[in-house]
Design goal:
Structural class: alpha+beta
Order of helices and strands: EEEEEEEEHEHHHH
Number of helices: 5
Strand order of the largest sheet: 2-9-8-4-6
Helix content: 25-40%
Mean pLDDT: 79
CATH architecture of the largest domain: Sandwich
Largest sheet: 5 strands, mixed
Strand content: 25-35%
Number of domains: 2
CATH topology of the largest domain: Immunoglobulin-like
CATH class of the largest domain: Mainly Beta
């Protein structure tokens, strides 16, 4: 079923813009005007409720009145390679004369096809220079680049080989009974501790290999 025609006038009408770099709370203002002769109740919803704080997110607008809603985007790590799909939905309904409270019941009792709805998409406004800086920061710092991942993987493999050799030497020494004075100063590791070390290093190798695959996939795309 088609929705009822929206009586509220929204400003901006279709987009909410948030200015980067998003290291702090960024607020966008949404104005809602009621040009009709009827009281209008409203609700503001979003597809990303954990990312935004809306004040007020519901209320009542008297005939001819205008209210301002603050939409606050919480700080986050902006990735210019990820597409933003956040959206907002403004729902409205006509509040009958004489109704002064129990607005929540009014929302429950109103059929869905009688609700007025307006959709707004969120736009992250970031300077082109800042976007370029974000995209190249990993390469500049050496983090996230293909070469960096290969170096990390190589170091993990060398550490893995060193541990194998050290364990082999200790086993041979214990078998021959010729433990040196230097070996005696080293704390003995229980079999469970050696197993834990192996699990940790194998996990590290898997994480670095996965990151390397993701990085290579980005370079290819």
């Amino acid at each position: 079923m088609s929705k009822s025609q929206q009586l509220l006038v929204l400003e901006p009408p279709v987009e909410l813009k948030f200015k980067g770099p998003f290291t702090d709370v960024v607020t966008a203002e949404l104005k809602m005007s009621n040009p009709s002769k009827k009281r209008i109740g409203f609700k503001v919803k979003t597809t990303a409720p954990k990312q935004y704080c809306v004040r007020p997110n519901n209320g009542l607008i008297e005939p001819g009145a205008t209210i301002s809603v603050a939409v606050m985007l919480q700080p986050f790590n902006y990735d210019p390679n990820e597409k933003n799909r956040h959206k907002f939905l403004v729902q409205a309904l006509i509040v009958p004369d004489g109704v002064t409270e129990n607005h929540e019941m009014l929302w429950k009792d109103t059929p869905a096809d009688q609700l007025m709805e307006s959709k707004l998409k969120c736009v992250f406004d970031v300077d082109a220079d800042l976007v370029q800086q974000m995209r190249s920061s990993d390469v500049t710092d050496g983090k996230g680049s293909e070469d960096y991942m290969r170096r990390e993987l190589h170091q993990l493999r060398e550490e893995n080989t060193r541990l194998k050799d050290e364990g082999l030497r200790q086993r041979r020494g214990l078998t021959r009974g010729d433990v040196s004075s230097t070996d005696q100063l080293k704390p003995a590791l229980a079999p469970g501790e050696w197993s834990l070390r192996w699990v940790i290093y194998l996990l590290l190798i898997a994480i670095v290999a996965l990151s390397l695959g993701i990085a290579i996939g980005r370079f290819i795309n």
